[in-house]
Amino acid sequence: MTTEPRKFRFAAGGAGNADEGGARKFVKLAQEAEELGFDTFAIPDRLDAQVGPLAALGALAVSTDKIRLATSMLAMPFRHPAVLAKELTTIDVLSKGRLEVGLGLGAFKEDFDQSGIEFESPDRRFQRLDEGLMVLDALLRGQEAEFEGEVFRVKELKGYPRPRQGPRPPIAIGAGARRTLELAARRADVVSINPRSSAEGKLRISDMSMDAVKNKVEIVKAAAGERFADIELSWSIATIVITDDREQVADFALKAIERGLSASIEIDKEVTIDDVLGSPYLAIGTFDEIADQVRATRAATGMSYVGVIPTQMEAFAPVLEQLKGE
User: Fold this and answer.
1) Which of 21, 97, 243, 253 could, after both became Cys, cross-link 165 (CB 3.0–4.6 A)?
2) Do 41 and 321 contact (CB within 8 A), yes or no?
3) pLDDT tens digits, the chain, 326 residues: what are they?
C-alpha cells in the first residue's frame, strides 16, 4: 500500500539584519512573506546583528493575520525553559494559535564567546536540550511541571497563560548528528534535517548530499517507531539561483567553494557537479526545474516542509506557486 506524501508547506525566514533592510523593516518583511503565500515566517536565534526573536514574534502576532510564526531555532542555553515557556504561550495566545516552537542546541561558539555565556560541551548542551524539552512539554500544555534533572529543577510550576493551540504549540527540532536526530524523533512534531557544521559554523559539503539526507531520515524513522507517520520533516534551501544553464552555474559554484570563496560551506570531501545539482540544500535552474527538484526531494526523503532565506523569498515565489497545495 502506497502512502500519500505529506502536502508541502513553505517557510521564509527573517533576522532583521542589514541585508534585509534592518530591524525597522522587519515587520514589512514578514507581511511580504504572508502576501507571497508562505505558510510560516521563522526567526533565527543569534546574538549577532539580528532582532530579538521573542520580542519580534510578539510584534508579528499583531501585525500579520494568517502566516504561522516560528523560531528557527531557539538556542536552549540562552534561556531557562520555565521563563521561555511563558513567553511562548503568550505569543501563541496573542497570535491566535499561530506559533511553532523551534529549538536547538546552540551551535555557534562565537555567540557564546562574545556574550560570556559558557559554551558547554556537546554532551552538556544535549542534556540541556533533552531536559528543557521535558519541562517545556508540560508548561506549553498549561500543565504543572515538576522536574528534577541534572541541569534544570522545576517545582510545582504551572504553565500560564494556557496556549491557544491544543494540546500545545508544535515543537520543531533542528538536528544533524545522530543522537540529536534520535531525540527529535522521540519528542518533536517537526524534525528539521540539517547539515552538520564545522567548529567554525560552516556547513560540511559532505553532509549536504541527498544520500546524507536519506541516511538521517532513516535514523529518525528508526528512533520514532510508530510515531514516524505523525512527524513532519523539513529542510532549508541555502541557495537559490535562477538560470537556464544548471550545469554551468553548478560548475562555477563548485569552483568557488573549492577556492574558499564561500563563507558558509566547508569542503571536507571531493564532490562533483552532479553532487551539487542533487543536493536538497541547493536549488539551481529554471523555476520549473527547481519545482521538479523539490518534488524529487520529497519523493526520495519524505521531507515536505521547505524553508528559504528572506533575501530569496521573491526568487522562490514562482516555485511556491507551482507547488502550493501539492
Assistant:
1) 97
2) no
3) 347 889 999 999 899 999 888 999 999 999 999 999 999 999 999 999 999 999 999 999 999 999 999 999 999 999 999 999 999 999 999 999 999 999 999 988 889 999 999 999 999 999 999 999 999 999 999 999 999 999 999 999 999 999 999 899 999 999 999 999 999 999 999 999 998 876 666 677 788 899 999 999 999 999 999 999 999 999 999 889 999 999 999 888 787 776 665 656 777 677 788 888 999 999 999 999 999 999 999 999 999 999 998 888 999 999 999 999 99
Q: Are 89 and 61 contacting, i.e. CB atoms less than 8 angstroms apart?
A: no
- What φ, ψ does residue 112 adopt, rounded to 5°? -70, -45
Angle at 278 between CA 274 and CA 281, to 5 degrees: 130
C-alpha 89/C-alpha 187 separation (Å) is 18
pTM above 0.90, yes or no: yes
DSSP structural state of residue 71: E
Using CA atoms, how far apart are residues 142 and 147, in angstroms rounded to an integer?
A: 15
Between the CA atoms of 12, 282, 266 and 52, what dihedral angle is there, to the nearest 10 degrees? 0
Q: Tell me the HSE value of 277 on the side-chain side, using a 13 A CA sphere.
A: 17
**Contacts for 191 with CB less than 8 Å, ≥ 6 apart:** 172, 173, 175, 181, 184, 185, 220, 231, 232, 233, 234
In the block, cell 500544555 appears at 141
